[in-house]
Design goal:
- The chain is 43% helix and 18% strand.
- The protein has 11 helices and 12 strands.
- The strands form 3 sheets. Strands 4-3-1-2-9-10 form a 6-stranded parallel sheet, with helices on both faces.
- The protein has 2 domains: 154 residues, Rossmann fold (3-Layer(aba) Sandwich); 107 residues, Rossmann fold (3-Layer(aba) Sandwich).
- By secondary structure, the protein is an alpha/beta fold.
- Bound molecules: D-glutamic acid.
Length: 277
């Protein structure tokens, strides 16, 4: 017998929506609680310990609000906290993210791959281990795309600034002959059209979200948490920023609505006063 659980998804902001979108596509009946820590966005320039503490409090909050499985829809938080979260919440299944270096290394023909991620993700042990395990013999070029997360949060997906940041990152990589770009930050799938325009045909852009969604489904099945039936699952969005702004962002990025709630950091805990939007 199944006991459907809500999926708890979190990110520093709207980046995790790229993962939410993929999850919703294959698990439409599953309820979702999404937490955007927009008071603290961006995570990528913060110390890993700080992001780990945020992640633990958010996970606690999501579990309190009914999440039975957590998707860390943020490469930075996964780098900083995934290991720690599994130890602190041993009864909860977690799905984390790591830059998709493995599929890139397996399919590159030129043997040259570009990785775009935040500074914190590149610093973490997870990234070093992925490169060591899967990328021997492959030349990896990386860039932190400084400021791109803020452009995406502001909804400027095709502005001069986003274009300049991406051209600066990708031009030297393209000159070296990369044929694959790995999106190692969940915000970046929202600028895929711009990345493809800069890279031109012949460069494969890897968005890990569909693979993460499939892994989420596998874990729900394994733990008997899968929701069945045709009714769309309820979706609640919480933000430590402004819920009205988040509602506009979700609607602009995904053309979709759910219920929106304010959540407030108090010391190292999160409170969610009613009412919601
Ligand atoms: N979307 C996040 C990631 O995947 C965090 C970006 C940020 O807040 O710096 O890394």
């Amino acid at each position: 017998m199944n006991h459907p659980a809500a999926i708890g998804i979190f990110d520093s902001g709207v980046g995790g929506l790229s993962v939410y979108r993929a999850i919703r596509e294959i698990l439409p009946a599953q309820p979702v609680i999404y937490f955007a820590d927009q008071q603290h966005v961006p995570y990528g320039s913060r110390p890993l310990e700080e992001v780990r503490d945020f992640s633990e409090a958010i996970t606690h909050f999501l579990i309190q609000h009914g999440a039975g499985l957590i998707v860390v829809a943020c490469n930075t938080a996964s780098a900083a906290a995934l290991h720690h979260l599994r130890a602190v919440f041993p009864h909860i299944p977690f799905v984390g993210m790591e830059p998709a270096v493995k599929p890139a290394a397996e399919t590159t023909r030129s043997g040259k791959v570009g990785v775009l991620a935040t500074p914190a993700t590149f610093q973490g042990a997870l990234y070093a281990s992925v490169v060591e395990r899967f990328a021997s013999g492959v030349k990896i070029m990386s860039d932190t795309c400084n400021g791109l997360v803020q452009e995406i949060e502001a909804g400027r997906l095709n502005g001069n600034s986003a274009r300049h940041i991406l051209e600066t990152a990708l031009t030297p990589m393209l000159r070296e002959g990369i044929d694959t770009v790995v999106l190692g930050c969940t915000h970046y799938p929202f600028v895929i059209p711009l990345i493809e325009e800069i890279c031109g045909a012949g460069v494969r852009v890897i968005d890990p979200a569909p693979a993460v969604a499939r892994q989420t489904r596998r874990l729900l099945e394994r733990h008997n948490l899968l929701a069945e039936g045709d009714q769309p699952g309820e979706v609640h969005f919480y933000t430590s920023g402004d819920p009205l702004t988040l509602r506009r962002q979700v609607s602009a990025l995904l053309g979709e609505h759910g219920r929106y709630h304010a959540a407030r950091w108090e010391d190292s805990h999160i409170l969610a006063p009613e009412p919601s939007l």
